[in-house]
Amino acid sequence: MSMLLLSRASAIVDAALAEGRANNLAPLAVAVLDAGGHLVAYKREDGAGILRFDIAFGKAWGSIGMGFGSRELATRAKDLPTFFSMLATASGGRLVASPGGVLIRDDSGEVVGAVGISGDLGDNDERCAIVGIEAAGFHAERLPA
Amino acid sequence: MSMLLLSRASAIVDAALAEGRANNLAPLAVAVLDAGGHLVAYKREDGAGILRFDIAFGKAWGSIGMGFGSRELATRAKDLPTFFSMLATASGGRLVASPGGVLIRDDSGEVVGAVGISGDLGDNDERCAIVGIEAAGFHAERLPA
Amino acid sequence: MSMLLLSRASAIVDAALAEGRANNLAPLAVAVLDAGGHLVAYKREDGAGILRFDIAFGKAWGSIGMGFGSRELATRAKDLPTFFSMLATASGGRLVASPGGVLIRDDSGEVVGAVGISGDLGDNDERCAIVGIEAAGFHAERLPA
Amino acid sequence: MSMLLLSRASAIVDAALAEGRANNLAPLAVAVLDAGGHLVAYKREDGAGILRFDIAFGKAWGSIGMGFGSRELATRAKDLPTFFSMLATASGGRLVASPGGVLIRDDSGEVVGAVGISGDLGDNDERCAIVGIEAAGFHAERLPA
């Protein structure tokens, strides 16, 4: 797999936060993980609650863990609530199924990591993640609406 | 952020318990946490069950973690049960979504901590929390009914 | 077993803290647990670190868990370090072997709970625990020096 | 206590990493936590191992938890190995006793958070932490050599 360099992970974080500020969103927490599910870069805006790290991380980790973004995780969790609760437990609390976690793909289509954002509505968190990924020259997985 | 001193945290606990006794409520457990989610003061009345600490703590911690009281947590959990189960797991069991957890704000509106109470009905637990917060000279977050 | 009432648990906490203040000790955290190992009363003085709750709790819980105070736990842990590390793990992190955890006995000699204190040197923490227990009319287990 | 803003936490991370690059250190992971022990900003340099986040976080968290830097934690752990193993367990793995965790104090001397760095020798990690803290206009706790 190609590597997610810190320089580009940081670019994702900063572009995502700029998008949040441009739209007056609530304070955001933005986590960027590599393809192994390990944290590369993180920023928490002033005023964001103390659970925001775990949620942002969990959206990204769950996306990598299952191979699709956390919007799809949320859709499937609605149909299979007990199974997804078990996944959350099986992962040691590292999977959170709610929009805002988006896979990062390189030009060849390979997954190089994921972004997870928490703080505002899931739809807004997700838009910031996509903006950040594309600003850094990667491709955000867009699922059919 | 301003600091939650022990003297005022203790005043919250004692006023909340006095309110409970004045209304003949079931035995209560009252936990006061600082803005970082750490326990400052706690009392458990005689006869309260052994899970009451975890519930009281979790109502307060969840309020700080998400940035609003546990009544609102409970409302959202009703619509998004699986997501909130995942938050409970992601937080290591420190989030309990049921009325009785109330944010403590100072005169400038900043969150300085939270109170969590368990033992009676959630509405009664919450009222004691609000009475305690106001008796100590702080402001309880009141959400629209 | 006889019950550890909140009124007396609170008396232990307050007397222990008064002893600490009278001797200009570092900020203390004082936890009082019942015979089932559950928290009854807790106060953390201003400025005490965020790990102090876990340490104070763990000294008290470990004392009840093994049936003797945490000074004796520390002595045995020195001879059997791996075993005691395993006990810490087996208890889910609820056992801390260092002076400052003292069993609370009633007039008949029965264990009704334990006090755990953290913040200053273990010897000082322990003295405050003993003062608190005796001020509340209980008996602190004194081990031969 | 005063708040650790993201802007200043990020300044600490970037200055610490610049110091590491200027000295050709091994790839570093740098975590900045607020006074409640929660992550505010984090960067992991390319090539740093997957345990580096937990080590960097644990050096910072342990410093806040006990109220002094992780160099002092390491010194004490040498004398009290079993006790410190228990603290690691009691904290849920959030305490790592090795140089590289340094308290961040503001002009009034209050602790506003901590930096934890991992990747090179502990002495080098620590120097980068101190450089980062001072570059951001805060005061690093310097213990007597």
Greatest contact between two chains:
C-D, 22 and 19 residues
CATH architecture of chain A: 2-Layer Sandwich
Query: What would CATH call the class of chain A?
Result: Alpha Beta
Would you tell me which CATH topology of chain A applies? Answer: Beta-Lactamase
Helix fraction bin of chain A: 40-55%
InterPro entries (chains A, B, C, D): GlcG_carb_metab_protein, PduO/GlcC-like, PduO/GlcC-like_sf
Protein name (chains A, B, C, D): GlcG protein
Organism (chains A, B, C, D): Marinobacterium lacunae
What can be said about this structure in brief?
The structure is a homotetramer of 145-residue chains. By secondary structure, chain A is α+β, with helices and mostly antiparallel strands. The first copy, chain A, is 46% helix and 19% strand.
Structural features, described:
The structure is a homotetramer of 145-residue chains. Chain A has 145 residues and is an alpha+beta fold. Chain A has one domain (6-139): Beta-Lactamase, CATH 3.30.450.150. The first copy, chain A, contains 5 helices and 5 strands. The first copy, chain A, has a 5-stranded antiparallel β-sheet. In chain A, strand 1 (29-34) and strand 2 form a beta hairpin. In chain A, helix 1 packs across helix 5 (122-135) and helix 3 (70-79) packs across helix 4. The longest helix of chain A is centred in the first third of the chain and has 17 residues, at 6-22. Chain A is globular, with a radius of gyration of 14 Å. The model of chain A has no long low-confidence stretch (mean pLDDT 95). Chains C and D meet through helix 2, helix 3 and helix 4 of C and helix 2 and helix 4 of D. Strand 2 of chain A pairs antiparallel with strand 2 of chain D. Chains A, B, C, D: This is GlcG protein. Chains A, B, C, D: Pfam families: HbpS-like.
